Every structure is written in structure tokens, then in C-alpha cells.
């Protein structure tokens, strides 16, 4: 059993900076869990508090049901992979992987054999005698993972595991990491500021802002129904359009001069209520002709995304981004319309999603 | 080339030659005088002999003093390297109010501790602690004088090692002393080598402190014993002095060469890598 439970966890630095503000999380045994947020949101502090490198000023950390809040990092039985991997530069790959066993006073021959075994599982056989400086970024990451695996911890903690790799390696390492976690069936918590990474890797994602968890859910949940405007603006490779509007009769919403369908949430609101109208660029249909129930504006920016293009419309309703098929010709300076898909429209009242 | 420029070049090289001669003549004397039948104070090509070395080997005081120097240098070096490494690591990792001011103050005062100004209080202190005529006393005083600079230099090395190495080891359960032994010491090894060589050289050449604190000639190091090499007539025994000087300087030169080939002396500390 190696579930991780965080109970009203707080961290206030001397000097009054609050890094964690009553974080409440339950991470299941064997789950791949992402802590996602912009820099300074407390996600790394949270990970380090689970590891024991930071002391919580309030609340508790439970690993596998045991309260480890007061234990030093070495007695929590977790392994951490740092952003820079922190491989010891003066040790060979074997010695690096065997280091946790050396601390546990496993004999030299036995720990080298075990290290070689772990290295073999990760395809590092040919590199055992090398030093970290002689390895590529991807290999260094594997050595760091092997070192973490060598002590058979109850949980893995990964700090920005992919950020030090170049773009191509990153995709490869992402798939590798996910497969490894599936095979080991180990509880794994990782920190990232990259929403695509979080959605791709994690079973569940916690969106964090200012030391608080703003939403916990599966990647599909946080992508489809972000619980608040913060998560809505943070998740998605193209940010969600969030526009000030007002509820009208018949489940419609007025955004500037445009009157558009209010989606499933509109029924719970009374006409005249102020809302934030949210719709992802992917869920808007581009039209070159005037259309009812659509935003209108002038095409100002066209960004090529490869298989699609991201078009920015500036109109009286505000600035709106639309993802347009690669085959559609879009010329800057022309008038255009964007039709929202009614079942994908989200309404936010006071920052929170209207269910 | 204009005549004017020609003269300028000649002038420059003459100046360099004079400077070179000024510094190399004593070294030439050191190289030649020990092998000379009748060494004088001038550097001259010797009429070759090894008699001076035989005479030196017969002189009990001389060889014993080199052993004493070795004891003092090794003892001080060990204390300085060990304590400076621990102090530098702690100071670079623990936030102390006024840490930098403390370091600078110690650095400033350290030159006084082993200097002439503190001679009387040092003697009194050693007397009260019953450390007069004890090699331990000399080692402790010299260590005290060298430690601030050593800590200051080593702190630059420990500052430059990333914390994530240590945090990584901590998560695996390493104790602070294990972290120092397994991670910090290997990473700052060039710094430790620099400090070791520097402190050994400092002790090897120090005259004042052992002269002050040691009474018996059989405990005195080479730098002090050399001072006693006179002939029966009260003249400095140049044969003995020159031979002994050569023998005295060789270990330090050898150590520099060894450490330099092993770690390479660079201007450590000034620039963060």
C-alpha cells in the first residue's frame, strides 16, 4: 500500500510567504499523478514537502497510511528524481545506481549486481562504466530513474521530469516514462508546468494556483470541464476563449453585440446574470459568411499549427481565437464569423464553473 | 626598424634580463653551492663534491629537524583540510545572520594570529595551556592562523556545488556526514588539494611560531634549526646551510609538482564555474 494522502498541508516560509495553503489531496496506490501549475504556484514545494526536503508548517503527509510528516526524507521510503537528475558526477553509472544500496549498507558485489540488473531493465547495459558527463540527456534521465528504482521505494517523486530534454527526446521519454510506470505499478507524483505533459502522462491532474489545489480530475475532466477560469485558461495547448457576457432569455448569452448559445449551464442562471463565456478554439467553427449565433470580427493574426491554423478574430465581442482546418483559406484583414459548438460551451460565474 | 625602435627593444630586453638575473641568482646559488668544496656567498660553478651532503647526514639535528617539519606540516595540513571542509560546507549551506561579515572579520584577523603582533598573548596562552615546547601547540596555533583563509577559499568551492546532489542523497537516506564523505569531498577535491598544499607550504616555511613555542632543539623544525648552523668560529656554515636549504626545499617543490600534475592548479575561487 503506498497511497499518498495530504491533509490540510500548509507551508509558510519564514518571512510570511505562503507556499502551500491547506492542500488536501488523496493520491491512490499505483496512480500516476500530475501537479500542474505556473511557476511559483507551490507545486515544487508540495513535491519537496512530500519528499521531506521541506518541512510542513501545518497539516500532515501520509504515505501508505503512515504519518510521515515528522520523518526525515531518508525514512519516508520514497525516491525523487530531480529536474537536473542530480547524478553524482564523480561516480560511474553503476555506482550512481547502486548509491541507495550503499547507504543501506548492501555489500559491494551484491549492489553492483543489483545495479546492473536495474540498468539492464532500462537499456543501460552498455553505459555502466561511463560517467554522467559522458551520457546524453535521455540517458542521464534513465540513470536517474534506475537509481530511484534501485531502492524499491513506495513512491516516485519526479520534479519536471522532461523539461531538461530537447523537444524530440521529450516525446520519446514521455512514452518511456508512462510505460515504465505501468510496468512497475508504482505510485508516481510529478510536477510540471506543461499542461500537455500533464494530460499525456497522468491518470489524474491537480491544477494548482497560489499554493492551492484548484481542481483535481482525470485529464479528460480537466480538459472538458475546467472547474474555474484559472484551470480553463491554463489547460489546453491553445488557451480557451474567456469573454465577459450576460445571460439572456432562452439559454442564450450576450457577449458584446453577439448573442450566442449558452450551453448546458445557462439553464441554471437567471437572465441578466453576468457570466464569463468560455469556449475552446477547437470548438468554434469558422465561417466566411455572416451567420446567426456567432461571434464576428476581423481576422488579425493567422498562425500555422501544421495540420490546422489558429486564427485570431478581433471584434466588438473581444479577441477570439478559432482553430481552422488547414484547407480553409484565411486572409488577414477579412471579416469572419466563429460559431460555438453549443454542447462545449462553459459558463463561469464568479470564476467558478456553472454546472 | 627605425634606430629609435631598435634601442627601445634593446632597452626592454636588458631590463628583463636584469630582473631575471636578480631572481635567478639566489636559485643558482641554491643549486650550485651544496656541491661546492668551499661555498661562498656568490653563485659560482662549483668544484664538484658530495662531501657537504655527507656532513649533513652526520648532523643529527638536521635530519631530525626535517622529520619535525614533516610532523608539523602533516598535522597542521590534516587539521586545516578537515576542519575547513566541514566549516566551509556548513557555512555555505546554513543561513546564519552576519555570516559574510564573520568570514571577512576572521580573514582579517587570521593574519594577525600567526603574526608578530600576537606573539606575547600566544606565548601566554600556550603557557597557560601547558603547550610550551609541544609540537601539538605549534600545530594548533598554525591551524588557527590558516583556517580562516582556508574556509574562505573552500566556501567558494562548496557554494559552486549544486544542492540537488545533496538533496538527492538525503532522500536516499544519507546522513550529513555521509553526504560530506560521498558527495561533497569528491566534488571539491581540487579545492582540498589546493588547501592542503598551501597549508603544508605555509607551515614548512614558518619560523616564528615554532621558534616561539618550542624550547628543545630536538623538537624544532627545519626552518628553526637552519638558524643554528654556525661554525665554531661563529661564522655561518655556508656548506651546511646551502646543502640543508636544498634538501629543505625539495619536498615542497615535489609536492607542488605532484598535486599540480594531478589536479592542475588554476585560479580557483575567483570565477564561478
Automatic annotation (TrEMBL), chain A:
Gene Ontology cellular component annotations, sorted alphabetically: ATP-binding cassette (ABC) transporter complex, substrate-binding subunit-containing
Cross-referenced Pfam families: ABC_tran, TOBE_2
GO MF annotation terms: ABC-type transporter activity; ATP binding; ATP hydrolysis activity
Keyword vocabulary terms for this entry: ATP-binding, Cell membrane, Membrane, Nucleotide-binding, Translocase, Transport
UniProt-listed SMART domains: AAA
Membrane keyword on record: yes
Gene3D superfamilies with a match to the protein in the record: 2.40.50.100, Nucleic acid-binding proteins, P-loop containing nucleotide triphosphate hydrolases
Keyword Transport: yes
Highest taxon, organism lineage: Bacteria
PROSITE patterns in the record: ABC_TRANSPORTER_1, ABC_TRANSPORTER_2
Domain ABC transporter: 4-235
Matching PANTHER family: MALTODEXTRIN IMPORT ATP-BINDING PROTEIN MSMX, TREHALOSE IMPORT ATP-BINDING PROTEIN SUGC
Name under which the protein is recorded: ABC transporter ATP-binding protein
Source organism of the structure: Streptomyces radicis
Automatic annotation (TrEMBL), chain B:
Start and end residues of each ABC transmembrane type-1 domain: 66-259
Topology with respect to the bilayer: Multi-pass membrane protein
Protein family (similarity comment): Belongs to the binding-protein-dependent transport system permease family.
Subcellular location: Cell membrane
Listed PANTHER family: INNER MEMBRANE ABC TRANSPORTER PERMEASE PROTEIN YCJP, MALTOSE TRANSPORT SYSTEM PERMEASE-RELATED
Name the UniProt record assigns to this protein: ABC transporter permease subunit
Cell membrane as UniProt keyword: yes
CDD domains to which the protein is assigned, alphabetical: TM_PBP2 (cd06261)
The UniProt record lists the keyword Transport: yes
Lineage, opening ranks: Bacteria, Bacillati, Actinomycetota, Actinomycetes, Kitasatosporales
GO cellular component: plasma membrane
Amino acid at each position: 500500500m503506498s497511497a499518498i494522502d495530504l491533509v490540510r498541508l500548509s507551508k509558510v516560509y519564514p518571512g510570511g510567504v505562503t507556499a502551500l495553503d491547506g492542500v488536501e489531496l488523496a493520491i491512490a496506490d499505483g496512480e500516476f499523478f500530475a501537479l500542474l501549475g505556473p511557476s511559483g504556484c507551490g507545486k515544487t514545494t508540495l513535491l519537496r514537502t512530500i519528499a521531506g526536503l521541506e518541512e510542513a508548517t501545518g497539516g500532515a503527509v501520509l504515505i501508505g497510511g503512515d504519518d510521515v510528516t515528522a520523518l526525515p526524507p531518508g525514512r519516508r521510503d520514497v525516491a525523487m528524481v530531480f529536474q537536473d537528475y542530480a547524478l553524482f558526477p564523480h561516480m560511474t553509472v553503476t555506482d550512481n545506481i547502486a548509491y541507495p544500496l550503499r547507504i543501506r549498507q548492501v555489500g559491494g558485489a551484491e549492489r553492483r549486481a543489483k545495479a546492473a540488473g536495474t540498468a539492464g531493465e532500462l537499456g543501460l547495459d552498455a553505459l555502466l562504466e561511463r560517467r554522467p558527463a559522458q551520457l546524453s540527456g535521455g540517458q542521464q534521465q534513465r540513470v536517474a530513474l534506475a537509481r530511484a528504482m534501485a531502492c524499491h521505494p513506495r513512491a516516485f517523486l519526479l520534479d519536471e521530469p522532461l523539461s531538461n530534454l530537447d523537444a524530440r527526446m521529450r516525446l520519446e521519454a514521455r512514452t518511456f516514462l508512462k510505460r515504465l510506470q505501468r510496468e512497475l505499478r508504482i505510485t508516481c507524483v510529478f510536477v510540471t508546468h506543461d499542461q500537455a505533459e500533464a494530460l499525456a502522462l497522468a491518470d489524474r491532474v491537480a491544477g494548482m494556483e497560489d499554493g492551492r489545489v484548484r481542481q483535481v480530475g482525470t485529464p479528460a475532466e480537466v480538459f472538458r470541464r475546467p472547474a474555474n477560469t484559472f484551470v480553463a485558461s491554463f489547460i489546453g495547448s491553445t488557451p480557451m476563449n474567456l469573454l465577459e457576457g450576460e445571460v439572456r432569455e432562452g439559454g442564450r448569452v450576450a457577449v458584446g453585440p453577439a448573442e450566442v448559445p449558452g450551453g448546458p449551464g445557462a439553464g441554471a442562471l437567471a437572465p441578466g446574470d453576468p457570466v464569463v463565456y468560455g469556449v475552446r478554439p477547437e470548438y468554434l467553427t469558422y465561417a466566411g459568411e455572416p451567420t446567426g449565433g456567432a461571434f464576428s470580427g476581423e481576422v488579425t493574426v493567422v498562425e500555422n499549427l501544421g495540420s490546422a491554423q489558429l486564427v485570431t478574430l478581433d471584434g466588438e465581442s473581444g479577441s477570439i481565437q478559432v482553430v481552422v482546418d488547414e484547407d480553409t483559406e484565411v486572409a488577414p484583414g477579412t471579416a469572419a464569423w466563429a460559431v460555438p459548438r453549443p454542447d462545449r460551451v462553459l459558463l463561469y460565474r464568479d470564476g467558478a464553473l456553472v454546472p | 626598424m627605425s634606430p629609435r625602435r631598435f634601442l627601445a627593444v634593446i632597452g626592454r630586453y636588458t631590463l628583463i634580463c636584469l630582473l631575471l638575473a636578480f631572481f635567478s641568482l639566489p636559485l643558482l646559488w641554491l643549486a650550485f653551492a651544496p656541491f661546492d668544496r668551499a661555498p661562498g656567498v656568490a653563485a659560482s660553478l662549483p668544484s664538484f663534491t658530495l662531501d657537504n651532503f655527507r656532513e649533513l647526514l652526520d648532523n643529527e639535528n638536521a635530519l631530525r629537524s626535517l622529520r619535525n617539519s614533516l610532523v608539523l606540516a602533516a598535522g597542521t595540513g590534516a587539521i586545516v583540510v578537515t576542519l575547513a571542509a566541514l566549516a566551509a560546507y556548513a557555512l555555505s549551506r546554513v543561513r546564519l545572520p552576519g555570516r559574510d561579515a564573520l568570514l571577512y572579520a576572521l580573514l582579517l584577523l587570521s593574519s594577525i594570529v600567526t603574526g608578530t603582533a600576537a606573539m606575547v598573548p600566544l606565548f601566554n596562552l600556550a603557557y597557560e595551556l601547558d603547550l610550551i615546547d609541544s609540537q601539538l601547540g605549534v600545530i594548533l596555533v598554525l591551524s588557527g592562523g590558516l583556517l580562516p583563509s582556508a574556509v574562505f577559499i573552500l566556501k567558494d568551492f562548496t557554494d559552486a556545488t549544486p544542492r540537488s546532489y545533496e538533496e538527492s542523497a538525503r532522500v536516499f537516506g544519507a546522513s550529513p556526514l555521509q553526504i560530506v564523505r560521498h558527495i561533497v569531498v569528491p566534488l571539491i577535491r581540487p579545492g582540498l588539494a589546493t588547501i592542503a598544499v598551501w597549508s603544508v607550504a605555509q607551515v614548512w616555511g614558518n619560523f616564528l611560531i615554532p621558534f616561539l613555542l618550542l624550547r628543545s632543539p630536538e623538537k624544532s623544525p627545519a626552518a628553526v634549526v637552519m638558524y643554528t648552523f654556525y661554525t665554531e668560529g661563529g661564522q655561518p656554515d655556508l656548506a651546511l646551510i646551502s646543502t640543508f636549504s636544498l634538501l629543505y626545499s625539495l619536498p615542497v617543490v615535489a609536492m607542488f609538482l605532484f598535486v599540480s600534475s594531478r589536479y592542475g592548479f588554476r585560479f580557483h575561487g575567483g570565477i564561478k564555474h
